[in-house]
Amino acid sequence: MEGARLHKRSAEDGKASASRAEGKPLRIGGVSPPSQIRNQLRSAALSCMTDVMGMWGMTLTENDAACNWIESLFDVTHLESRLQHTLNGDVHEEAAEIRAAANMVRTLIAADMWPSDTRQEMAELASSQLQRMLDEKVYTNSLLVAEIRREIRQFDERPCERSR
Question: What residues form DSSP beta bridges with 63?
């Protein structure tokens, strides 16, 4: 009986070796190992992407259609010039608007949705205006000052050198 079990086991090992040689998934007890499943899922996802022209990755900004839509949104709404205009405002008269614009710039940069040609310039403008609020003591509330410091640090923590 034990000889039959050994023979059966070596026959299964032979099938497994043949499957690996043919590139078929290796199954252990009828289930593929997790790393093999991950690789198969990744291959399936990548093969689906090759069917979609203009898509070179899985994220939103690795897609020509999505990038074109974002770019047209900037063009149609004049978003960049409106944010720049707001950020160039007087920190004493328009502090809330400047903070909102700075945070919008930071959010769009972090999401890789800001055009690369002005990304660094806008990040520096937004960060410098927030710093100016602190330097000129626009706000005296310690909690609000701490929040603005956090907003400035977020510009420093997220590099602007992305590729769109």
Answer: 55
